[in-house]
Amino acid sequence: MSAGTAGAAATVLVTGAAGLIGRKLTARLLADGGLVDAGSAELPVRRLVLADVVAPEVPADAGSVEIASVTADLAEPGVAERLVAERPAVVFHLAAVVSGGAEADFELGYRVNLDGTRALLEAIRAVPDWTPRVVFSSSIAVFGAAPPDRLPNPVPDDLAHTPMTSYGVQKSIGELLLADYTRRGFLDGVGIRLPTICIRPGAPNAAASGFFSSILREPLSGREAVLPTSTDVRHWFASPRSAVGFLLHAATLDGARLGATRTLSMPGLSATVGEEIEALRRVAGDDAVALIRHQPDPEIARIVESWAPALDASRAEALGFVADASFDDIVRVHVEDELGGRIG
Q1: Measured distance CA(335)–CA(283) in Å, rounded
Q2: Are 74 and 63 in contact (CB under 8 A)?
Q3: Would 201 be classed as within a structural domain?
Q4: DSSP bridge partners of 194
Q5: Any idea where the NAD-dependent epimerase/dehydratase domain is (predicted)?
Q6: Pick from 122, 148, 196, 198: most CB atoms within 10 A?
Q7: Does residue 104 lie within any of the structural domains?
């Protein structure tokens, strides 16, 4: 966080605020009363600006925090400039077209994931005497290989990027832009390479990784789920609760500790689909597992099998980022946060 911001009530901007992580981040900011790290409120929040292409919901229990819900497309001329006009102390840039969507619609992926990001950074650069903390949500999709066994396991934080999807390319470019705009002093950027977030509540999205959640989420609610890959596919996971924790810690982290490399691979859990299913069995029993139906989808398998099966997150861990302890914990987090503690 930039020097001099601690303790002063501030404005915080969240792009992509209508999405899962944006909603949970908003709820956590309101519950904590601001940006809290290591048990103390370092930056009380006076105003939250929630922006997305659909109107973000305004929480009913906002307390004394003023909330603005803004329907905004960052790639449209003038939109980013209006969003940063208040000079927010912290910008959480979560807006994105997810992996499967960016692969299916080439133009849309680049418009949102690249053009929107560049427009936001340019709008910040144009404001004099202002250096906000910008937290950029990147992805493990920046790493890739064909075949995937050419990737080291775990993947080092500083491995050269060889993304095998348009989404991975777009996020990789975003990381480079964040580092360059930080180097030039236009902003104070921290990028976090998120694991696949599991279990995602609600309706499925266009992410190729969506089935990792649905094979747990649907059975936990008593519904059938489709598994499009083999059970030996290995991947890197974190719960939504951990993802919000990553964002908050990135917002308060001393940027001087990062040096020139501004993006970090986040800690998580490396697990196979089969290990996911066994965690479901331990938490919810055999009847839940019986609701999973195998229906191969070669395109989804192609995408997810090019991703890193595990990341070396030792740099992030040394800086205080913490993830879930086990996959059983990931399942229990969903039951506690989304199902009221009850399995359907």
Answers
A1: 9
A2: no
A3: no
A4: 139
A5: 12-236
A6: 198
A7: yes
CA-to-CA separations, 19 to 71, 94, 95, 235, 303, in angstroms, rounded: 13, 8, 8, 22, 22
Residue 302: which CATH number?
A: 3.90.25.10
Structure confidence by residue, pLDDT tens digits, 264-318: 999 999 999 999 999 999 999 999 999 999 999 998 988 888 777 899 999 999 9
Paired residues of 278 in beta bridges: none
Rg (CA), the chain: 19
The count of other CB atoms within 10 Å of the CB of residue 20 is 18
For the whole prediction, is pTM greater than 0.85?
Answer: yes
What amino acid is encoded at 171 in this protein? K
Please write the tens of the pLDDT for every residue from 214-234: 999 999 999 999 999 999 999
Instruction: List the Cα angle 72/76/19 in 5-degree steps.
Output: 35
Do 41 and 177 reside in the same domain of the chain? yes
Q: Write out the catalytic residue numbers.
A: 167
Number of domains in the chain: 2
The residue range of the domain holding 214 is 210-234+269-311+324-338
What tokens appear for 187 in the block?
Answer: 């902003």
Largest CA distance in the chain: 60
How do residues 32-64 score in pLDDT, each as one tens digit? 888 875 445 578 899 999 999 999 999 988 888
Measured distance CA(80)–CA(77) in Å, rounded: 8
Q: What is the pLDDT of residue 37?
A: 59
- Which residue blocks in the chain are alpha helix, DSSP H? 20-32, 79-83, 99-104, 106-110, 117-125, 166-183, 210-220, 240-252, 273-284, 286-289, 298-304, 314-318, 327-338
For residues 50 and 189, state if they share a domain: yes
What is the 3 state secondary structure string of 302-334?
HHHCCCCCCECCHHHHHCCCCCCCCHHHHHHHH
Residue type, 42: E
290 and 215 within one domain? yes
In order of 32, 87, 178, 235, 297, the CA distances from 84 in angstroms are 24, 5, 16, 36, 42
